[in-house]
């Protein structure tokens, strides 16, 4: 299944596992890479030396390509980048910031760079910064996404129309048929997050995985736009946020309410009431927890079955 994305990364299938905080450690990244996709270690929830350990363990667990996702908001990002270069990681996905800041440094050190965007404007800026590909992430996605609330179905063809580098679609993709749909719209590959949260190898807490499987339509909501837009499963903390809006909380008061390590408390430590539970809308289509390799195999089978149906439509 060769195309621009498989060639760029040296992988078998154009499926990238998102570098989600508190879910994407070396076990998940290596499992995805060993199954033919591209695994990413999520550096956003790791101290520098913890990232070092995860990279080294991933290098021991797979001989296939893998990468690291680095949010630009990370306070000690220079330390992360030094470790990535020192350990000769060849693929880095950056997000939540200006791609010009680190793209040149990484590329000078032989790293393939991909930047995550939520609009055509930012896709063009990433291309101008010299990245090798972009991830265009729609409103459906979990974690941090765009304030414009542009859906994947609209965003992918809009970005495809304007850029000339490889395009990866993200947001609402958990099945092979969704993968085919966005590729027909112009994507060269897909980045999958929520589906891999509910995998056996994800480092997220078992209670969070089960909560994702239990989620139904309408159980997530994009909120906290004043800080950084994030899609949350509805729980006590989510209700507290909504009550804060009703009371007219400002930015500083919302920051106080969010506090520190709220996402870790929920997704990693398993506090399903007071924790921040980030997940995409597609959680309503996730019904089980299974190995990452099985998730990829299922997606490829569904993709091919969907392809076979096209001549009859």
Percent of sequence in beta strands: 15-25%
| Uncertain runs | none
Indicate the CATH class.
Answer: Alpha Beta
User: How many beta-strand segments?
Assistant: 11
Helix segment tally: 14
Helix/sheet category: alpha/beta
> How much helical structure, as a percent, in the residues?
40-55%
What CATH calls the topology is TIM Barrel
Give the overall shape: globular
Could you give the distance between the termini? 23 Å
Please name the fourth-level CATH homologous superfamily.
Aldolase class I
Mean pLDDT: 94
Q: Which sequence of SSEs, written as H and E, runs from N to C?
A: HEHEHEHEHEHEEHEHEHHEEHHHH
Strand order of the largest sheet: 1-9-8-6-5-4-3-2
Major sheet: size, sense and barrel closure?
Answer: 8 strands, parallel
């Amino acid at each position: 299944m060769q195309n621009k994305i498989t060639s760029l990364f040296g992988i078998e299938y154009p499926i990238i596992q998102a570098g989600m905080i508190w879910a994407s450690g070396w076990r998940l990244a290596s499992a995805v890479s060993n199954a033919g996709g591209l695994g990413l270690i999520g550096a956003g929830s790791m101290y520098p030396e913890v990232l070092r350990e995860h990279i080294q363990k991933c290098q021991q667990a797979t001989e296939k390509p893998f990468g690291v996702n680095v949010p630009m908001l990370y306070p000690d990002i220079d330390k992360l980048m030094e470790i990535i270069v020192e350990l000769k990681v060849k693929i880095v996905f950056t997000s939540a910031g200006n791609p010009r800041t680190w793209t040149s440094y990484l590329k000078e050190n032989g790293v393939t760079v991909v930047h995550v965007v939520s609009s055509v404007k930012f896709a063009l800026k990433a291309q101008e910064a010299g990245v090798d590909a972009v991830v265009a992430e729609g409103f459906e996605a979990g974690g941090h996404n765009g304030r414009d609330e542009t859906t994947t179905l609209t965003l992918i063809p809009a970005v495809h129309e304007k850029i000339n580098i490889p395009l990866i679609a993200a947001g609402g993709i958990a099945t092979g048929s969704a993968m085919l749909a966005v590729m027909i719209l112009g994507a060269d590959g897909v980045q999958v997050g929520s589906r891999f949260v509910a995998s056996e190898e994800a480092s997220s807490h078992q209670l969070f995985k089960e909560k994702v499987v239990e989620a139904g339509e309408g159980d997530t909501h994009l909120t906290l736009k004043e800080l950084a837009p994030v899609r949350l499963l509805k729980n006590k903390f989510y209700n507290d946020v909504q009550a804060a809006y009703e009371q007219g909380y400002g930015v500083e008061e919302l920051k106080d309410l969010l506090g520190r390590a709220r996402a870790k408390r929920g997704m990693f430590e398993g506090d399903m009431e007071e924790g921040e539970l980030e997940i995409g809308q597609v959680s309503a289509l996730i019904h089980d927890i299974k190995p990452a390799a099985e998730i990829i195999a299922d997606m490829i089978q569904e993709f091919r079955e969907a392809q076979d149906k096209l001549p009859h439509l």
